[in-house]
Amino acid sequence: MIAALELLREIAARQDGFVEIRYHAKTSRSLGVDKGKVERSQVRHRKGVGVRVFAGGGWGFASTGQVDAVSIERAIQLARTAAKACAGHSSAGSAKHPPLMSLPACTLARGIFDQPGLEEIAARSLEEKIAMATNLEAHMRGASSTIRSASCTYNEIFEDKAIVTTDGAEAAFRLVRPELRVQAVAEKDGQLSTGNEAVGATGGWDCLFHSAAGEALAERAAKTAQDLLGAGHAEGGRSVVILAPSIVGLLVHEAIGHTVEADFVQAGSVAAGKIGHRVASDLVTLCDSGGSEHYLGAGGTIPVDDEGVPASRTTIIKDGILVSYLHSRESAARFGVAPTGNARAWEYSDQPLIRMRNTYLEPGSQDLDEIIANTRDGYLLDGPRNGQADATGEFMFGVQEAWRIRDGKLGELVRGVTLSGIAFEVLQSVDAVSRDFRWDLGAGYCGKGQPAKVDAGGPYIRCRALLGGEQ
Known about the structure:
Elements: H1 2-12, E1 18-34, E2 37-55, E3 58-64, H2 69-90, E4 110-112, H3 118-123, H4 126-141, E5 147-165, E6 170-188, E7 191-200, H5 205-208, H6 214-229, E8 232-233, E9 237-243, H7 245-257, H8 262-266, E10 286-289, E11 314-318, E12 321-322, H9 329-335, E13 343-344, E14 353-354, E15 358-361, H10 368-373, E16 377-389, E17 394-406, E18 409-415, E19 417-422, H11 423-428, E20 432-433, E21 438-439, E22 445-447, E23 451-453, E24 455-458, E25 461-468
Parallel strand pairs: 4-6, 8-18, 9-16, 15-24
Antiparallel strand pairs: 1-2, 1-5, 2-3, 5-6, 6-7, 9-25, 10-11, 10-15, 11-12, 13-14, 16-17, 17-18, 17-19, 19-25, 20-25, 21-24, 22-23
């Protein structure tokens, strides 16, 4: 990686105008165990350089899988030609989006920013990882006679990056992201139910299993599958709900985080023009960070974004007031603010896009038990399933587990619950926030033209939303 950084630095020194050069090597390993058998064990390696040129108001991009000076400079020339072709179209601009002829100076990263856990994950043999997955899958199948099948998947992604720009960025880092997913399927009298648990981190084994050991995750998945077999259904309608960190994370990522990405804002998302406006309860502070706040290991951690900007924490909502969007260098220049370090590319052959990193609600001051005790009638929701959200902030998510709350006490488990609403309206109804905090979406991938590793989470919050269930 040091050699790659030096090569990029030497090439950048010979260029005119703005050039961004990004070296990226990625090794992905994946294995899966299903019904007692190793069904998959594979390795994928990608390495190359992506370059961007900004000239005359236009961007040009090219990439090469050859990491040598001749190939990289050839890619720069291709990108420069594309930028000039684009510039003629961009120079006219519009009243709404006037042409941007140069990138303003900003704080850029310089140095080596390796993340922890690399040696620890690399030192564990493939045989150890297969044994772990095999044992966890067997543990689930042996939990009960009702468990019909189980599966365990382990993935890890090693990344080396170096980013150099002609206006001052010279940064490099290495990191590793391990992930574990377990699933148990229970059956009784022809009825099936599923329990899922997943964890993902940036770092080593301690980060991956910060909240629970692998055996505990397997036991939880099996127990959930069994418990759901006998669960009834929720009553549909608007309800008081306590959202667990997993659901909070899904909400703030899918239904709010995307609406404040500056490219979506420019396209007319619900957050457009809302800076300085109240969009949530004053108990709500929402952030997005390249670091892992509150404890190490968040799955979307990056020290530097793919434009060479430090990936520092950005407060999006402060005490209920929208105070910032998420920016690349270009969008920040158009909005007249500093970039937030949110430009990310999945592989060397991808262009950086505005993406979230680790998105979360700040914890509050109450205990979960206190919040439950002060809830006369409602539900506690945990375990996100599939769902969707759009640029209006409207969302609908499936929920794995929902517990009835009556007179301040947890009651029966119910199944088949969906949660829906308008995200900012839901946040405006928040009236309790716990001091508990958990990262809970580190095993997930965000899709926006290309994948991205992200994480999201927060405390338990009490709010109002629409539940789907039996009427």
